[in-house]
Amino acid sequence: MSIDANTLLAILAMAVATLATRFGGLLLIRHVQMTDRAKRALNAVPPAVLMAVVTPTALTSGLAETIGCAVTALAATRLSLLPAAAAGVVTVAVLRGIGF
């Protein structure tokens, strides 16, 4: 197996870009006074991204995945992302196990 130089360069460039945006955001946020409205808006981003990732699969796969997506969406309103995603995965596994 050989490593393509262009692929490695692309991966490194993406890693640098990701780190730059993350650290840049952390540095910039220190100088910004956050209002309650802005904090609520930023707290809504992770569940929205989670739904954007799982919804296409849920709507094109089957009933178990659709129900799992709904469970994930409901759990994401109350829980952090990891438990919400886990609830959706467990739901799909259980529904598939009983024949959905």
Structural commentary:
The chain is mostly helical. It is 81% helix and 0% strand. The protein is built from 5 helices and no strands. Helix 3 packs antiparallel against helix 4 and helix 4 (63-76) runs antiparallel to helix 5 (81-97). The longest helix has 25 residues, at 5-29. The mean pLDDT is 89.
Secondary-structure blueprint:
Layout: H1 5-29, H2 36-43, H3 45-61, H4 63-76, H5 81-97
Helix pairs in contact: 3-4, 4-5
The helix count comes to 5
Summed over residues and divided by their number, the pLDDT gives a mean of 89
Distance N to C terminus: 41 Å
Note the overall shape: flat
What's the alpha carbon Rg, rounded to whole Å?
Answer: 19 Å
By DSSP, the count of extended strands is 0
Structural class: mainly alpha
Relative strand content: under 5%
Main sheet record: none
Which residues sit in consecutive blocks of at least 5 with pLDDT less than 50? none
Order of helices and strands: HHHHH
Proportion in helices? over 70%
